[in-house]
Amino acid sequence: MEIKEELSLEDVNKLILQKEELELTPEIKEQVNQCYEFLKDFSKEKVIYGINTGFGPMAQWKIEDQDLEQLQYNIIRSHSTGAGTPLPNIYVRAALLSRIMTFIKGHSGVNISSVELLIHFFNQKIYPIIPEHGSVGASGDLVQLAHLALALIGEGEVSYLGKRVKSSDVFKDLGIKPLKMYIREGLALTNGTAVMTGIGLVNLLYARKLIHWSLLASVLMNEIASSYDDFMSETLNGLKRHEGQKRVAEQMRIMSEGSKRLRNRMKELYHLQESNIFKHKVQPYYSLRCIPQIVGPILDEWENAKTVLINELNSVDDNPIVDKEHNTVLHGGNFHGDYVSFEMDKLKISVAKLTMLTERQMNYLFHDRINGILPPFVNLGKLGLNYGLQASQFTATSTTAECQTLSMPMYIHSIPNNNDNQDVVSMGTNSALICARVIENSYQVMAIHMMALVQAVDCLRIKEELSPKTKDLYNRIREIVPPFVEDTPKYEEINKLITFLKQ
What we know:
By secondary structure, this protein is mostly helical. It has two domains: 9-192, Fumarase/aspartase (N-terminal domain) (Fumarase C, Chain B, domain 1, Orthogonal Bundle); 201-322 and 337-502, Up-down Bundle (Fumarase C, Chain A, domain 2). It is built from 20 helices and seven strands. Helix 9 packs across helix 11, helix 9 packs parallel to helix 15 (338-366) and helix 18 packs across helix 20. The longest helix is centred in the last third of the chain and has 33 residues, at 428-460. It starts with 8 loop residues before the first helix and ends with a helix.
């Protein structure tokens, strides 16, 4: 894909999940070069933060000309202090993309070699080893991005061809040269929201899939329960002025088209009844009936998070900013990650609620005294001797509880540091990582739920009565998890289902 100044979420999906490559255009190259040449001339005999001053509280010290190149190396080396588990490659790939997108705007003053090497890493799937802990999300992701930059200068480690190796060895093997420091390469590479933005974009893509699976599972749930279909009605949901609710109801109507399991209230109840007691529930439980009202706000939040994250990706997020149009360099706080942090907190709360909904639907399937139509734990074997999915509920319940605990906001946990220079911070990367954990947890719960749904379909022998879309879901799940009567370990099948759901 030719690189462009504005990327959509679909572009991100192709570049990150589908691993398409980037191609630098002559126009973008010229734009970066012009900015670099301007800054090189403009910075002479002027005091500009991070070019000829120290960093952070050390900015009060001017740096001598002979030390300017060393200054840029020093910020990378001194800030490579991360700890913890390395970020998965997919997050690092997204971070590389985010850093590239800032530099190509022509406001960072970097040499074109920085952009070219970042793109080379991106295309060749060379992923710097970046520890998960270190960022407070204020001057951006200083520590994590320092580890990214460390790899670029040939001093860090990378993940390449499935192995963790020295960056210098990869440079040698591929016949390429480490990045050279020019005017402000060190500061530009370390200063910005690239890591939290990258993780956030991946979160968006995976959360979107979760919402889809939740709606499809909810339709199948109502088919299993043989619910009345008016809870999805266009008229009913249109009387609430929330776009998410209306869209959810619409999608569920589409998913349920052709179903022979859903009931029509007009035909069955809106006439004289001989009995005063109804065997079939007049209204099902909220976890079946209130899907538009529950998932609607989740969808609305996802849309808002999408807007914020795509805006962040397409922004210039470092400091200072080179403004060649007005012949100046501007100092400010575009590196601050509050926008990302706030949205990641909201998104993780949304996904936690989605997980709670999934767990409640699963409980309906497992609890025979609630559903009244299925054996306990959709056990197709001999009750007492066999256990069905009884123990799987333990996993789903404990994982849902963790999601609830993790949903405490990170956004408000600002702790001053850096000699109080960074006295209000965003904790954006922490927020994005916790959100990622909640999303991964939700996939685990959804995988178990899918297993329960297809068992319920088999128990009731209703496969041929399902809508085409839910029947297709049944068939796809059954390709991974065959029907079972006897007790068998389920952990491998759960992992296979997670992989399927995330594809």
